[in-house]
Specification:
Blueprint: E1 39-44, H1 51-61, E2 64-69, H2 73-83, E3 90-94, H3 95-102, E4 140-145, E5 147-152, E6 175-177, H4 181-191, H5 201-214, E7 218-221, H6 227-231, E8 237-241, H7 242-251, E9 255-258, E10 265-272, H8 280-290, H9 293-303, E11 306-307, H10 318-321, H11 330-335, E12 337-338, H12 346-358
Parallel strand pairs: 1-2, 1-3, 6-7, 6-8, 10-12
Antiparallel strand pairs: 3-10, 4-10, 4-11, 5-8, 5-9
Helix pairs in contact: 4-5, 5-12
Length: 359
């Protein structure tokens, strides 16, 4: 997932060097800053916007895309803080980090002029007006990610329907989990009937004990490629992102996708424009282009994230629509819970995770 699985780690800012990845037709050593240039500086995860889409935008508009990538939301925020919001034109980042940024004294995002983005009308209303940015003043949804259970039906002799089934002693040394504290602790909290964003110390203490009970069943923790252990037969059940579950199913149709009965998590990735974007007009044109139904479908078909664009549906192939890992029914999405900034409780989550991994 392009390093994205690390995105809900503690919200301490990572001061690290940024590696640059450019699209085939967008080779540039540094972001360009002259306001009258036909350039847009994009900052997101590597390969999250397909080259074919980048190339089509450049062809249609004559605006060159300088594609720069980060590994985590925290790295992105550190870069924006270092440049005071002046280096990039469009950033694609996650919902919870937008919430964090919106609480800061010096907000590094600028309000998006919707009149410059007429394709905003294409965004499915169910993904708008979320708590992290009420009214979508600063952000516009691009895609949505979610985690789910996937298991080998030939090797597991009972049906898996929920998070609680992962605690079954019959699955000893059989699980692969995405290596991420908020995701795995969140799953445990949902099993107990609590919110994934729980901050009550007593409920978190209960979740800690419950998670430790799961440890005998866990064979692999993998942030980036958890599906590989399923594919090679090292594990038989996994909890991972949809695009990873999709890779497992493509390798072996015996793998089954499960939407947990307790409810899923949903994480929206959004377009934002930094506060001092050097090419603000071009930023609006790029976002508007990405919200075109045909382009949106092309992007999510390639990156296998959940599409948030209602105009894209008429372009979706049967293969995409039948892929349970990337086309999740609205009934599931509407009851899914979003991660939120848990403030000081982040330290507790980190301590729980540390003990779980060390046990």
């Amino acid at each position: 997932m392009k390093g994205k699985l690390l995105k809900v780690l503690a919200l301490g800012i990572i001061s690290s060097c940024l590696a640059f990845t450019m699209s085939a037709c967008s080779i540039q050593s540094q972001p360009t800053s002259s306001s009258d240039e036909k350039v847009v500086n994009l900052f997101t995860w590597a390969n999250y916007v397909p080259n074919s889409v980048v190339n089509e935008f450049q062809k249609q508009t004559g605006i060159k895309v300088n594609y720069n990538n980060f590994s985590t939301n925290e790295e992105m925020l550190a870069k924006l803080q270092a440049s005071k919001g002046s280096e990039y034109d469009v950033v694609i980042c996650s919902d919870y980090i937008i919430e964090v940024m919106g609480k800061q004294k010096n907000i590094l995002m600028q309000p998006i002029d919707k009149s410059k983005v007429p394709n905003y009308k294409n965004v499915d209303p169910q993904f708008l007006n979320q708590p992290y940015d009420k009214g979508n003043r600063y952000s516009i949804p691009y895609t949505l990610g979610s985690q789910m259970i996937v298991y080998n039906s030939e090797k597991v002799n009972f049906p898996i329907k929920s998070y609680k089934d992962l605690w079954n002693p019959a699955l000893k040394n059989s699980l692969v989990l995405v290596d991420d504290p908020r995701i795995v602790i969140g799953m445990t909290l949902k099993k107990l009937g609590y919110s994934m964003n729980e901050t009550d110390p007593k409920k978190l203490a209960q979740a800690k004990q419950e998670l430790l009970k799961l440890k005998p069943n866990v064979k692999v923790l993998d942030a980036d490629t958890p599906h590989n252990s399923l594919i090679n037969g090292d594990t038989t059940v996994g909890f991972m992102y949809g695009s990873q579950a999709s890779a497992a199913v493509k390798s072996n149709p015996k793998f089954k996708i499960v939407y947990p009965e307790e409810g899923m998590n949903a994480e929206e990735d959004n377009f934002i424009i930094p506060s001092k974007a050097p090419h603000k007009e071009n930023a609006g044109k790029f976002i508007n282009f990405m919200l075109d139904g045909k382009i949106s479908n092309e992007a999510t078909t390639a990156n296998e994230y959940i599409n948030t664009n209602k105009a894209a549906k008429k372009y979706m192939s049967k293969k995409y629509l039948n892929n349970k890992a990337v086309f999740i029914p609205d009934s599931e999405l509407k009851r899914a819970e979003r991660f939120r900034d848990v403030g000081n409780a982040t330290k507790t989550y980190d301590l729980i995770w540390s003990e779980f991994k060390q046990k």
